[in-house]
Structures are given as structure tokens and as C-alpha cells.
């Protein structure tokens, strides 16, 4: 038994040990990670082919360049044999800390002092992209240390529309003359049937825009967000966006169903906040 926010008991079925073990096994897998540089136009032209070529596919495009870093991850059972071995500790430290955090932070600091240096720094970063291939646990591959603080806005748009939206953002950046030192993160997910999932009912491409913490994000995000919204984009629930309940109800077929259930379970908003009331109130 568990209780609602209002104190009325409800009955919850307990999970069997067998189902818990099945879940544990489903979440336990290794990944063979491949990281390589690529041409952003070729990547966007063939996005769906790239996305379906691996279990997990994403890329990072550096504004002011025509290059991107591609990351492909292929799942393996933890005990499965494979020719690719783990990444040496020294290489992991070089990639994740010295380059991914230390050198990146230095480039952003230079860009803050001399904005005109940002396009050059991005070109240097893309020229230095190396081809890495290694095996690791899923959490060891998926999780990276992020020492550099930033603001982020991310939307999920229909998969087929994603590349065109990225090109519109690229064109906007060029027209406005913005100097952006952070790469755009692009990734893909399968469709699902979860009521508030950003991929509910459709395959999706996620487009994430970042700016350093010391940059005011609103002027940039305010112009990029309409491009994402026109494509039917759904905002990441944990990142910056400007949508309210009326906007979200148009994007999620089961949104009103969720809101009615939330009201039934917590009519006094004991698990609510002013922000959640804006979204679901």
C-alpha cells in the first residue's frame, strides 16, 4: 500500500523478483563506442541512415565550421567477446579532462575576452578530432564529466524534419552574426507510448543549443525556439523553454489525461510548485 498526496490509500501491485531481475539484466550491457569527425552536410543529408546504423547515434556540430563529431554506440552483452577493448586510463583522462574540459574551458575564456576568436577556436577543435574506438560499461560510455557550466535548450522534433531545422538554425546563426563556442548536440530516439515522453508517438531528433554560463541565453534561445516550435518540437522537460499548459496540450495527445490524473492524485498540489502549475495547472 502507498498513499496519495491527500492521504487516501491506493493499492499498488508488487513486482516479482523475476521481473526485477529481468529489468536488471536489460539495463546491464556494454557498449562499443566509436568517435570520429565528419562533414555536417553529409551527416544531415544521411541522418536517418546514420541513426539506424547503431544502437545509439549522436553528433556535435561546431558552429562556424562544416565539421562535427560523430558518436556511435553499439550494445554488447557484458560477457560477449569483441575485438575492441577498453580505453586506456591515460587516454580517457586526455579525452575527458584535458581536452573535453580543460582545453574547452580555456577556449571559452578566450572567446569571452576576444569574441572574434570563437570561429577560429571551433575550427581548431574540429581539426583536432581523433578517431576513437573502445569498449566500456554503458554508464562508463554514456556519462562524461562536465566541468564547464552552461545554459541549454533542447527540443525533440519529428525525425524526418530534424536536418532541415538544424540547417535553419545554422543559417540563423550566420545571419545574426552570433559567436557560439558550444557545439549543437544532435541525437535520435525511437518512438514510444509514454504520455509525457518527448518521443511519444513518433521517432524524434533532438536538437540541443548551449551557451556558456556567462552568456545571457535569452536573446539567442528566443530566436531559435520558434524554429523548433514550427516543426512541432517538444521541449526537454528539464531544460530551458517558454511553453505553458496551452502550448503543451497541443503537442501531447494524452496531455489532458495526464493533467486529470495529476489533479486526482494531488488536488492540493503538495507535490507541486509554481513552475509545475504553469505547465500542468
From TrEMBL:
<dbReference type="InterPro" id="IPR010031">
    <property type="entry name" value="FAD_lactone_oxidase-like"/>
</dbReference>
<dbReference type="GO" id="GO:0016020">
    <property type="term" value="C:membrane"/>
</dbReference>
<dbReference type="InterPro" id="IPR007173">
    <property type="entry name" value="ALO_C"/>
</dbReference>
<feature type="domain" description="D-arabinono-1,4-lactone oxidase C-terminal">
    <location>
        <begin position="24"/>
        <end position="278"/>
    </location>
</feature>
<dbReference type="Pfam" id="PF04030">
    <property type="entry name" value="ALO"/>
</dbReference>
<protein>
    <recommendedName>
        <fullName>D-arabinono-1,4-lactone oxidase C-terminal domain-containing protein</fullName>
    </recommendedName>
</protein>
<dbReference type="InterPro" id="IPR016171">
    <property type="entry name" value="Vanillyl_alc_oxidase_C-sub2"/>
</dbReference>
<keyword id="KW-0560">Oxidoreductase</keyword>
<dbReference type="GO" id="GO:0003885">
    <property type="term" value="F:D-arabinono-1,4-lactone oxidase activity"/>
</dbReference>
<dbReference type="GO" id="GO:0080049">
    <property type="term" value="F:L-gulono-1,4-lactone dehydrogenase activity"/>
</dbReference>
Amino acid at each position: 500500500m502507498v498513499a496519495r498526496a491527500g492521504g487516501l490509500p491506493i493499492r499498488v501491485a508488487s513486482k516479482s523478483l523475476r521481473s526485477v531481475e529481468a529489468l536488471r539484466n536489460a539495463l546491464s550491457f556494454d557498449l562499443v563506442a566509436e568517435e570520429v569527425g565528419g562533414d555536417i552536410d553529409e551527416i544531415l543529408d544521411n541522418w536517418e541512415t546514420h541513426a539506424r546504423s547503431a544502437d545509439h547515434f549522436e553528433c556535435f556540430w561546431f558552429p562556424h565550421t562544416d565539421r562535427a563529431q560523430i558518436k556511435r554506440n553499439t550494445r554488447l552483452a557484458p560477457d560477449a567477446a569483441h575485438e575492441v577493448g577498453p580505453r586506456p586510463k591515460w587516454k580517457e583522462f586526455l579525452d575527458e579532462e584535458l581536452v573535453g574540459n580543460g582545453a574547452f574551458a580555456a577556449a571559452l575564456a578566450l572567446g569571452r575576452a576576444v569574441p572574434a576568436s570563437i570561429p577560429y577556436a571551433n575550427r581548431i577543435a574540429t581539426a583536432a578530432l581523433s578517431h576513437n574506438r573502445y569498449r566500456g560499461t554503458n554508464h562508463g560510455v554514456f556519462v562524461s564529466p562536465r566541468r564547464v557550466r552552461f545554459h541549454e535548450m533542447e527540443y525533440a522534433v519529428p525525425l524526418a524534419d530534424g536536418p532541415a531545422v538544424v540547417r535553419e538554425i545554422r543559417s540563423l546563426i550566420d545571419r545574426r552574426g552570433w559567436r557560439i563556442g558550444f557545439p549543437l548536440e544532435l541525437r535520435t530516439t525511437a518512438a514510444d507510448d509514454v504520455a509525457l515522453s518527448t518521443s511519444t508517438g513518433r521517432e524524434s531528433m533532438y536538437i540541443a543549443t548551449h551557451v556558456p554560463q556567462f552568456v545571457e541565453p535569452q536573446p539567442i534561445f528566443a530566436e531559435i525556439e520558434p524554429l523548433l516550435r514550427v516543426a512541432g518540437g517538444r521541449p526537454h522537460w528539464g531544460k530551458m523553454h517558454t511553453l505553458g499548459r496551452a502550448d503543451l496540450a497541443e503537442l501531447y495527445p494524452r496531455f489532458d489525461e495526464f493533467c486529470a490524473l495529476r489533479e486526482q492524485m494531488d488536488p492540493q498540489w503538495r507535490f507541486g510548485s509554481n513552475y509545475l502549475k504553469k505547465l500542468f495547472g
